[in-house]
Amino acid sequence: MSMPIPPIYEVETRFRFLSLNEIWDMLPIFQPYIDQEVEWNTIHYGPTLFQSDQILRINHLICQGKSRSLLGWKNPEQGNSVNIRLEIEEDITKGIQNSSILARLGGKKNMDTSTEVAAELNRLGHPKFMAFSGKNLTGEYEPQGFHLKIMLASNPALRWPLLLEIEKAAHSVEEASKFEEEIIEFVNQHQLESRMIREEPPLLLYQANH
């Protein structure tokens, strides 16, 4: 049974491409660092929270034959040029003890299974309202400390089903602002401005369905 980890600020943006080859043609520096494939199914809970720009979800992941389930919560967007959110993510594969997310929602903090966590979200009035699945190709771009993620979504309704995301994790608002500047400098250096997508994948899916 897992224990929660402290929240972090995710600092990220993403870019639209038509194919993997188009990414490698424009950003060949990234190709050697993409070294993992992750299958995912993401279930979003709490339509009222979503309307207030909060994200509550459970991710079911398969990587290298191993399955994991993660409970995630993100606060409203606070970035200027890229996406910055305070994020808490908890491994609920074998349940959770002292969940800070469930506590934040006013629920029971200890659960034995991920199924119980989903049931608790429903009990708290945050039902499932949206889901999608796909595959990510991931890696760490060590020269600048970027986490790389190429999202290949299986939902044909998405406006951009292939997105490249670059992300850094900050431990304070000040560090998040510094990382935002680093990402924008990288965008400008590689002339990626016209490809930037501020809308995050959950919002893109919600827009496609509504």
What does this molecule look like?
Helix content is 25%, strand content 39%. An eight-stranded antiparallel barrel has the order 1-5-4-3-2-6-7-8. Strand 4 (66-74) and strand 5 (83-91) form a beta hairpin. The chain has helices at residues 20-26, 47-51, 100-104, 114-123, 173-189, 201-209; strands spanning 8-16, 34-45, 55-63, 66-74, 83-91, 128-141, 146-153, 162-170, 196-197. The chain contains six helices and nine strands; from the N terminus they run βαβαβββααβββαβα. By secondary structure, it is an alpha+beta fold.
Compact description:
With 210 residues, this protein is of the alpha+beta class. It has helices at residues 20-26, 47-51, 100-104, 114-123, 173-189, 201-209; strands spanning 8-16, 34-45, 55-63, 66-74, 83-91, 128-141, 146-153, 162-170, 196-197.
Order of helices and strands: EHEHEEEHHEEEHEH
**Poorly predicted sequence stretches spanning 5 or more consecutive residues:** none
Number of strands: 9
Largest sheet: 8 strands, antiparallel, barrel
Instruction: Assign a percent range to the helix content.
Output: 25-40%
Radius of gyration: 17 Å
Helix count from the secondary structure assignment? 6
Q: What is the averaged pLDDT score?
A: 94
Beginning-to-end CA distance, first to last residue: 38 Å
Trace the largest sheet across and list its strands: 1-5-4-3-2-6-7-8
> Could you say which structural class the secondary elements and strand pairing correspond to?
alpha+beta
Q: Tell me the fraction of residues in β-strands, as a range.
A: 35-45%
